[in-house]
Design goal:
The chain has 11 helices and 10 strands. With 322 residues, the protein is α/β, with parallel strands linked by helices. It has 3 domains: 1-27; 28-122 and 250-317, 3-Layer(aba) Sandwich (D-Maltodextrin-Binding Protein, domain 2), CATH 3.40.190.150; 124-222, D-Maltodextrin-Binding Protein, domain 2. The longest helix has 25 residues, at 2-26. The protein is globular, with a radius of gyration of 22 Å. 43% of the residues are buried.
């Protein structure tokens, strides 16, 4: 009986392996759609189209980017979450997919509706100020704000976005009181600082790298525990007097929950191979991004960790989206 049981187990094991191989070989057998919940032309959209182009070459199938905008990215996220979990509808989103769950009173999706596939790119937020402000370091920035409580204006790329959350965390750490002014995106916020309409902004490095290099904006510090490869001379907030400070903005691919694990692993593996390409790395680093890595399980775990962390900040600061 033991011999028969072993043979049976062996047959099941072999058949299971064949089934997994068939899934990998068969997927994708038709076009794949990647929902991008922001407008065409922005940094996230450009990154999505670059990834889609590379995946199409790898898979020998069309990979179509579809922009589904609205509600800070929630409409596109909800559409992806409710799609058939077969790997043919994916979502390329940012940290906003987590933030919106803490900001919206009735979000149209939950984190359990989605599963992480692969984190594609990650980079710091960066605190930049207008050149005429007379500030070059975080210490000088904090001293100026404390000398004029509530008078220094900080433009927000979006109300409740990762830049907002990052500055709230900084304000709490340094006991700062600023005047927040929301803008409809990173571009308008950066232009407002360069036009002397506001004093500063906390924004993704990818959005302002070229302006910093052109000396139209003054970089103060980045939010991550590591320096930006695009701006290696700019110190971190942790290095500048707030030990342990670390906020990372990112873009990644997600899929509807219950998408077969083997399909998730295949997308992860194929995307990571693309990320390891020197040509791809050069292209996205030129955009101000850093190449990310890691398994699907690691990505999913980080989403849950961020939701807990950012919810605490958002509730403490009483931030909400109306």
């Amino acid at each position: 009986m033991k011999f028969i049981a072993c043979i049976s187990f062996f047959i099941i094991f072999i058949l299971g392996g064949q089934a997994i191989a068939q899934v990998n070989d068969a997927y994708p057998s038709k076009p794949v759609k990647i929902i991008v919940p922001v407008s065409a032309g922005g940094s996230t959209d450009r990154l999505a189209r670059l990834v889609a182009e590379k995946l199409a070459l790898t898979w020998r199938q069309p990979v179509i980017v579809e922009n589904v905008t609205g509600a800070g990215g929630s409409i596109g996220a909800a559409q992806a979450a409710k799609s058939k979990p077969d790997g043919y509808t994916l979502l390329l989103h940012s940290d906003a997919v987590v933030l919106n769950l803490a900001l919206l009173s009735k979000p149209a999706y939950s984190l359990s509706d989605l599963t992480g596939v692969v984190k594609v790119a990650a980079n710091p937020q960066i605190l930049v100020v207008r050149p005429g402000l007379g500030v070059n370091t975080l210490k000088e920035y904090a001293e100026l704000i404390k000398s004029k409580p509530g008078m220094i204006s900080v433009g927000l790329p979006t109300n409740g976005g990762i830049g907002h959350i990052s500055h709230e965390m900084l304000s709490k750490a340094l006991n700062l009181n600023v005047n927040y002014i929301p803008y409809p995106g990173g571009g308008p916020a950066a232009l407002a600082v360069m036009g002397d309409h506001v004093d500063a902004t906390m924004i993704t490095t990818a959005a302002v790298t070229e302006f910093i290099k052109a000396k139209k904006l003054v970089p103060v510090a980045v939010t991550t525990s590591y320096r930006s490869s695009a701006l290696p001379d700019v110190p971190t907030i942790s290095e500048s007097g707030v030990p342990g400070f670390n906020v990372e903005s990112w873009q990644g691919i997600l899929a509807p929950a219950s998408t077969p694990k083997e399909i998730i692993k295949k997308i992860n593996r194929d995307t990571l191979q693309i990320l390891e390409s020197p040509d791809f790395r050069k292209q996205i680093e030129a955009m101000g991004y850093g190449v990310s890595s890691g398994s699907a399980d690691q990505f999913s775990a980080s989403l849950n960790d961020e939701l807990k962390r950012y919810t605490q900040v958002i509730k403490g600061a009483k931030i909400s989206l109306k």
